[in-house]
Design a protein that fits this description.
The structure is a homodimer. By secondary structure, chain A is an alpha/beta fold. The first copy, chain A, is 19% helix and 27% strand. Chain A has six helices and eleven strands. In chain A, strand 10 and strand 11 form a beta hairpin. The longest helix of chain A has 12 residues. The two termini of chain A are 15 Å apart. Chains A and B meet through strand 10 of A and strand 10 of B. Chains A, B: This is Dihydrofolate reductase family protein. Chains A, B: Pfam families: RibD_C. Chains A, B: It comes from Nocardioides panacisoli.
Amino acid sequence: MSLVRIHNFSVSLDGFGTGEGQSLESPFGHAGQRLHPWMFATRFGREMLGQEGGGRGADDAFAAQFMPGIGAEIMGANKFGPPGWQDDADWKGWWGPNPPFHTPTYVLTHRPRPSIEMEGGTTFHFLDATPEEALAVAREGAGGLDVRIGGGVSVVRDFLAAGLVDHAHFAVAPIVLGRGERLWDGLEGLESSYDVESVTTASGTTHVTFTRS
Amino acid sequence: MSLVRIHNFSVSLDGFGTGEGQSLESPFGHAGQRLHPWMFATRFGREMLGQEGGGRGADDAFAAQFMPGIGAEIMGANKFGPPGWQDDADWKGWWGPNPPFHTPTYVLTHRPRPSIEMEGGTTFHFLDATPEEALAVAREGAGGLDVRIGGGVSVVRDFLAAGLVDHAHFAVAPIVLGRGERLWDGLEGLESSYDVESVTTASGTTHVTFTRS
């Protein structure tokens, strides 16, 4: 059975998944890199940036779950580009010619455009659709493999609220971000449908997994 | 040097320190006991309830830090009683004749009343004061020992925001509470003045300590 999964989604102690003031220069707004230092210190994170090295400990074990078994990603407009990217006909995402998805990748937007084939197996498709409709399309594209919900915050929240997610991994960074977009709003009692496990690693990050029970 | 400390303050994944709808029957509102099961499963927690047994593992090690070295507590009106307790001349707190404080205990309220001497060393004093003023009085009462900030949520937040806290221990329960009073509001960047450590125990609770750096 094809699962719907979330991986490596960082959130602050106060529940913000991104900061205030997102822009081309600051994809996470005033949060900068403070939500994700754990990931970019891992072998997996370095490799995503085309760099060598990085730790191979517990943070890496979580981070590396991102890829295996995934056949498609669904992401929101806010993950694909900075505010206003829909007005830039040449915008092809943040990630350069070879994005780190390597599967069909479905971008939810009210202003769809033609698909864009990138290097390395990533093809961006654009959908104006509900979570349920998008998932049906993505499952088709995933060819029996799992579908990853890639973010940003509101897309993760929408899929969780709709009960569509089978497994979710959040990395709680030990910071009080103060402002931004709240992950947990509207998800009261989420834990009741899941087995929840937590572990804190040497980086001070607490990895919390929700697995459908 | 006398320190200002916070212990055993539970908070949900989404940052709520108490639920909605606090009342005589439900001190934590709709949260019920869901924020504190870790504590009442420990030897320390059982003892506070006058019961035997309880675990002696990592949760107990954190919980038991509550008492040693403390010479006074400051608490808010919302911890001392349910909404409206100020209209009940006979209200003496939730805890029966022998409250688990065993020191002078300063209750912040805009409607002070005469002090109440309880069994076991607890005396309730009532103060209409700012955090700084209350701390000066409590330090006097503590006789050189540390002062604990006992809650509720807004008092903890006020003392943290005023930079008065030297050590704080929060227990993050793996639940999405959804509604209630938010602990972290107004505390953006709190971590920058503290060494922060986290550890998750077998109960699934993540203990996060802030120690003045």
